[in-house]
Design a protein that fits this description.
The structure holds 2 protein chains of 2 kinds. By secondary structure, chain A is of the alpha/beta class. Chain A contains 4 helices and 4 strands. A 4-stranded parallel sheet of chain A has the order 2-1-3-4. By secondary structure, chain B is mainly alpha-helical. Chain B has a single domain (about 10-210), classed as Helix Hairpins. Helices cover about 75% and strands about 10% of the residues of chain B. Chain B is rod-shaped. The chains are: A alpha/beta, B mainly alpha.
Chain lengths: ~100, ~210
């Protein structure tokens, strides 16, 4: 059984704890960089990160992009604008097609 | 395209021709694979966009409800209430093969029921917020699975495209031009042999006439 992690500011992640997620509340997005080795060590099959956190760990996240697990997924946090997940998808499209479409 | 440096003889010619054939066949296969990968990729993208929009919208709603709960009961009470619960394994990760790409399959098992906090000190809207969050989680997991598959497919498409291009624009032209070079050298050698023979024959005939 794999665990699911949620990394983000304390306000955003708090609600996931009662649902069985392992929550990592960080005060500053950069703190997630220190947590990263633990997150990708294999304990977690899915790692959700909020948008500010993803922006802070984007380079680390791309290192595990070619492995089946953990699946690092961006979700909006409280007060973030959305759109980072979409941008991540757009990068994958660009990588596949060699060009930006749509 | 510069040719390979090989000895211009028939053995090499045969070998290179065979290599060129194999390369052409490999190129065709890889090109078909690339096409299928792209088809698979494109069909996943639209679906993923829809799912992501839905998840983001529902998450914001749940966050909103949590904010209401915080406003009603105070941030400290809610934070304390939400400390209940242990991280447990809630997904099972398997693997599936899509066009030779191993993509994860995530199976969500039963979510723990939120609870363990005092119903007396927390507002009802907290229950609602958690119920809303719990209803988003299955779709979040599905989104994670799909996005991972898309990323893996993108990586595979990139490498396959590179291979196709390397075969099409480097290896095959190189082999073809080397084969042509060897052909020309062999033809040239044959012609020079022929003329030498004719010359020798003429000389022998002249000697016989003089004798």
């Amino acid at each position: 059984m794999g665990k699911v992690a949620m990394v983000g500011d304390t306000t955003s992640v708090a609600g996931f704890r009662p649902l069985g997620f392992a929550v990592f509340g960080v005060e500053r997005p950069e703190q997630a960089r220190e947590l990263w080795p633990e997150l990708v060590s294999g304990t977690f099959d899915v790692v959700f990160v909020t948008e500010p956190v993803y922006e802070a760990v984007a380079d680390l996240a791309s290192e595990v992009a070619d492995r089946p697990v953990p699946a690092v997924t961006v979700v909006p946090g409280v007060g973030s604008s959305g759109g980072v997940g979409e941008a991540k998808l757009a990068r994958a499209i660009e990588r596949a097609l060699g060009t930006k479409v749509l | 395209m510069p040719s390979l440096r090989v000895n211009p003889n028939r053995m090499e010619l045969l070998k290179l021709r065979r290599r060129a054939d194999v390369a052409r066949r490999g190129h065709k296969l890889l090109k078909d694979k690339l096409e299928q990968l792209l088809k698979e990729f494109m069909s996943r993208i639209a679906e993923n966009r829809r799912l992501r929009a839905e998840v983001e919208r529902d998450l914001f709603e749940a966050y909103g409800l949590l904010a209401v709960a915080r406003a009603e009961a105070g941030a400290a009470t809610i934070t304390q209430a939400l400390l209940a619960g242990e991280p447990t394994g809630i997904v099972t990760a398997g693997q599936r093969n899509v066009m030779s790409v191993r993509v994860p399959v995530l199976q969500l098992s039963e979510l723990p029921t939120p609870g363990g906090y005092s119903y007396a000190t927390t507002p009802a809207v907290l229950d609602e917020a958690l119920a809303r969050l719990a209803s988003v989680v299955p779709r979040m997991i599905e989104l994670a699975e799909r996005e991972k598959a898309i990323e893996l497919l993108a990586a595979e498409i990139e490498t396959t495209r590179r291979r196709v291009n390397a075969l099409e624009y480097v290896l095959i032209p190189q082999l073809v031009s080397t084969v042509r070079d060897i052909r020309m050298k062999l033809d040239e050698a044959e012609r020079s042999d022929l003329t030498r023979l004719m010359k020798v024959k003429a000389m022998i005939e002249e000697q016989q006439r003089e004798a």
